[in-house]
Amino acid sequence: MRTDTLRARLRDIVQPASRPAPVAPVVPSAPGPVAGPGALEAGEALGGAWRDTRAGRSFVVSRRYGPDAVYGRHRIGDFHDALSRAVGGTRLFSTPAAEPPFVFFDLETTGLNGGAGTYAFLIGCGRFDDDGGFVVEQHVMTGYGSERAMLRALADDLENAGALVTFNGKSFDAPLIETRYLFHRAESPCRALPHFDVLHPARRFWGARCPDSCSLIALEQQILGAKRHGDIPGFEIPARYFQFVRSGDARPLLPVLEHNRLDLVSLAGLTARLLTLAERGADGTDDAWEALALGYVYERGAVPWRAEQAFERAVTLSGAASLRQVRAEALRALAVEARRSRRHDLAAARWQAVIDVPGCPLPMAREAAQALAIHHEHRVRDLEAARRFALRSLEGERKVAWGDAVRHRLARIERKLVSERRPLLPPSSPSQPACAAPPSAPRTSS
């Protein structure tokens, strides 16, 4: 086949001669949502309302929980009061420090992995009002074409926010919502706000209570005493939205909205608990794990005296055999703090207590033995004890650098021991025995 003939055939396939005339897009005559088939029915099914924005109309569902509403073992008003009293503790958990008014933020998305093709079809924002009630506003994307208006409505809602509070939001919610704003060539309102991600401190404080899953639902059961009934599993949520877009029936979204609302209430409750612990200090902790985590929070926040109190409470509460690791960690933290403040004898006593904990983790025991070897060599001048602790710090060690440092210390201690054991002889001359008495000076007459 000739080359020009093949080129002509390809041109006809890519650019057919009889191409139909393009159809002009239908533009609505009045501002309104560019939405899927369920846009008109969503208001009646979900109990929301349309909100006018500069980018069009967006659909918002609002709910309010009164201050006397009960959630688990608490009232909604209790969360509000706790946050009002303990707002100063946010500087220990977020940088820059989160300041009120807090907006509790949670997304429901079309995928669980994020990425450019994932949409946030439901954006939940919760906040406390002046009466202590909790108001949840949920922005619903009724169709893919209404995303821009929804993002505009969200930006309007966040204009007066002082900080975002999320659960795993720094890794998922904030990057995803920023991607959606970038897609529409708009600036994300979340970027300029301080961000308090509750997931990471929650794992430190309560991970031991939820060893299988430190999810928001598991935490709300253990910490807040709240149990959900008939809650929708998270993996089913994207399919519910796709069903709504295809069929126009908004009823499958009702459990999704309820799931999102409960997430926001639980997030507010856990935040209140964390800030209450930071404000009350060691006396407010319920168990050894909480006290240990609080000590680390104070330590990072440069509040050493409160950190020491929390670690001491962790030691007090860790008497059970199952809490030996907590006891060893708390004693180690106390020893490091004593060394940092130059209370060397107290530090040595605490390092010894670390070694004495039954089943002390080997890395921690090696660190304590090394610290005691240094203490006995340079401060107590007990070289035998220093040698014994240096040998113990080598147990089970496979790191070359560590082993070389310890062997160097052992060699130095051995030299010092040999020097101490060597007998000290007085100087002597060849012509006179060392033990002879010096001759007496001759007497002179006056």
Tags for this model:
single chain, 446 residues, alpha+beta, Nucleotidyltransferase, domain 5, Serine Threonine Protein Phosphatase 5, Tetratricopeptide repeat, 2 domains, 7-stranded mixed β-sheet, two-stranded antiparallel sheet, 9 strands, 49% helix
Would you kindly provide a written description of the structure presented here, covering whatever features stand out?
- There is one protein chain.
- This protein has 446 residues and is an alpha+beta fold.
- 49% of the residues lie in helices and 11% in strands.
- The protein has two domains: 241 residues, Nucleotidyltransferase, domain 5 (2-Layer Sandwich); 135 residues, Serine Threonine Protein Phosphatase 5, Tetratricopeptide repeat, CATH 1.25.40.10.
- Helix 5 links the parallel strand 8 and strand 9.
- Helix 11 runs antiparallel to helix 12.
- The radius of gyration is 35 Å and the shape is elongated.
- The protein starts with a helix and ends in a 25-residue tail after the last helix.
